[in-house]
Specification:
33% helix, five-stranded antiparallel β-sheet, eight-stranded mixed β-sheet, alpha+beta
């Protein structure tokens, strides 16, 4: 941030978004399908980081990016939460969409995301025909990928922000729910950081709220427990490999098992948002189903017509779910 930096030296946030479990995933799954799924997830990360951050390099399982010096602490927090939310929801969507037994599909839930942010000076150098960021702080942020936090496996995504970064951006990490920690590296010394579990942060975010009244709403009472009803009403699965149909996978907006789900559905006539909320009533479960407007496709019928079609299909779905749960009970 200093004004007396030598020419060609920049200051800003250095950000790495790294997919945990990526190496094990590719090593254990077939080469035909696993890279397609992994690339889809990595693309979600890139799209969420940009344009607040400039993506400088894709490093296999990670995205390395940098910011201009005018990015605020609030903007950094927004990018972190947005990026993890997009990754997590896509991971759930891909996992939910398939019951395929191949390793590429079965191992998807073992992946997670960690984001590491550091502040410092860096320089751009032309190396082997491409721009690379170089400098001590670039080394620091990469070394922090190997740390002693002990997070591993599903639901263990985390954010780590160095103390240098919080000071430069003038924001209070404690107020953001981050805890202090110290890492130590040869030749670099001690690095003070702040961290938080991103899965826990995601669960604490405000629930999704619709911007318009529902196109259609329906309520049904089922002879089944919350888990049984959730399994029947959650988006359906296919036994084919999800790598062949990623474009058709429903987009998860909110996913709280046995309580509430919100998904975006791409119909032939429009993109619509589907909400299901469950509540236990004794040994039975009440389900509230709502559909909301998204975006009509060009040449599509009116929203009134789409709403009537959704009403018909919802009635059929609830009736079919009721018969299934009656037989299961």
């Amino acid at each position: 941030m200093a004004s007396d930096k030598p020419s060609g030296i920049d200051s800003g946030i250095l950000l790495i978004a790294d997919i945990s479990g990526y190496t094990e995933y590719l090593a254990g799954a077939d080469l035909e399908h696993a890279p397609i799924i992994a690339t889809d997830l990595l693309t979600r990360v890139v799209d969420s980081i940009h344009p607040t951050f400039e993506v400088n390099k894709l490093e296999g399982d990670a995205v390395f990016a940098s910011s201009r010096s005018d990015v605020t602490g609030d903007a950094l927090q927004a990018v972190i939460d947005q990026t993890y939310g997009a990754f997590r929801n896509r991971l759930i969507g891909v996992s939910q969409a398939t019951s395929c037994g191949c390793m590429a599909c079965e191992a998807v839930p073992n992946l997670d995301l960690k984001l590491i942010a550091h502040w410092g000076n860096f320089k751009r150098e032309r190396i082997a025909g491409r721009d690379e960021l170089v400098g001590r702080e670039v080394i620091v942020v990469h070394r922090l990928l190997k740390n002693t936090l002990g997070f591993a496996g599903p639901a263990s995504g985390y954010v780590m922000i160095t103390d240098d970064c919080t000071r430069a951006l003038e924001f209070d990490p404690k107020a953001q729910g981050l805890a202090p920690h110290t890492e130590s590296y040869d030749h670099l010394g001690e690095v003070e950081v702040w961290f938080a579990n991103l899965e826990e942060r995601a669960m604490q975010r405000p629930r999704w709220q619709p911007a318009t009244p529902p196109l259609h709403a329906a309520t049904a009472l089922f002879n089944g427990s919350l888990p049984q009803t959730w399994e029947v009403l959650a988006p359906g699965r296919s036994d084919s490999c999800v790598s062949h149909r990623l474009a058709s996978v429903m987009e998860i907006i909110e996913w709280k098992p046995y309580e509430r789900l919100v998904v975006e559905v791409d119909r032939p006539d429009a993109r619509v948002v589907h909400e299901v909320q469950l509540e236990a009533e004794g040994l039975r479960t009440r389900a509230e189903v709502r559909w909301y407007r998204g975006r009509r496709h060009r040449g599509a019928v009116s929203w009134d017509s789409i709403g009537k079609d959704l009403a018909t299909s919802t009635a059929e779905t609830l009736s079919r779910a009721g018969r299934h749960l009656d037989r299961a009970g």
